[in-house]
């Protein structure tokens, strides 16, 4: 029996790595003990389904909820180079590359074209953004985009939960988004509990922008040759609208 390749809700797949021509395989009961119970720290009651495919050294774990699945996935990412997870290629079957991303800018006059250009640094934007309207058909300031995440080692490229376009701060969120600090961008904590000093220039922790030794860059296209106000890709608009 072969393992399916379709998207599966709340499911993570583990495939034994091959070394010296031999594929790693520990058997169903040992996988449950070493990976599910000890490494992931979940109980049998928190598992909806656990399937194994012995001929392919493959195991699929389906969790009772999306929070459990996301927590397990985060643990796998954090320890992907450490035993026992390093013995497996881990795939997020719960994650679809195509998602709906909601973007909110603190200044609603930021042009939709600039938001799309920013998002393209992290994902393929499928079409234009749609304004989110309330029951009275008034725009609430949010825009929704259908995007296709780009693949990277260990999963998909995730756009930042908070960012700047010019001097205007923006936020975005989507279903299944990892818990991310909207101050420093790191995963695992939220902004009110952030322990980091964050640089808005290079987007790294450990120092502030005034101490940054890296050249300033355009936060729309990442070029060091110009800033946002002179970006050739920027949609021209009335500058007074962007003052905040």
UniProtKB/TrEMBL annotation:
It comes from the Eukaryota. PROSITE patterns: ZF_CCHC. SMART domains: ZnF_C2HC. Residues 181-196, 199-214 form the CCHC-type domain. Gene3D superfamilies: Zinc finger, CCHC-type. InterPro entries: RBD_ZCCHC3_1st, RBD_ZCCHC3_2nd, ZCCHC3, Znf_CCHC, Znf_CCHC_sf. The keyword Iron does not apply. It holds the Pfam family RBD_ZCCHC3_2nd. Keywords: Metal-binding, Zinc, Zinc-finger. PANTHER family: GAG-RELATED PROTEIN (PTHR22639), ZINC FINGER CCHC DOMAIN-CONTAINING PROTEIN 3 (PTHR22639:SF3). This is Zinc finger CCHC domain-containing protein 3-like.
